[in-house]
User: Fold this.
Amino acid sequence: MHKGRHGGVAPQKHAVVEEIKGWLTNAKGVVLTGYRGLNVATDTELRRELRAAGVTYKVVKNTMLRIAAKEAGIEGFDSHLEGTTAIAFSTEDAVAPAKILCGFMKKNKLEDAGILTVKVGMVEGKVIDEKEVKALASLPSREELIAKLLGSMNAPIANTVGVLSAVIRNAVYVIDAVRQKKEKEAA
Assistant:
């Protein structure tokens, strides 16, 4: 068997390693999962939820992932690359892969049964363990944070508009009272 430049990987597998390496280096958020006995309907539903959130989900060979991570300079995956492995990643939202996967596992009671489990994750190039992935999943999404920020910015504006309206309304009352007084004095 001919060995290529990727740590003993045959040339035909070079493209696979490069693709996985690209996923790892371009992703803001990554979660590696283990799965055993995931039925087709549940897998399809999971993939649909991930896709709707802009998260890519692929089954990967541990050997290819190990080589790609090494080439990308990522340390901390090796000890988790046993059994079946799938990678969920997003190039837009660091929280989405963890949030969708952990929410889906909880909703469908998959983790307790050992059907779908979190192995390890990565946020902005930093490898995080299973507990940190779950903590990340509990954070608000990017959209929720933006909505909260806009809401907090909008409240002072609304208050200012209310105060200004009250000042203008009071000024109109004062002017109207002065006008009525002048009319009475003139009469």
In short: The helical segments are 11-26, 40-52, 62-71, 96-107, 130-137, 142-186. The chain has a mean pLDDT of 82.
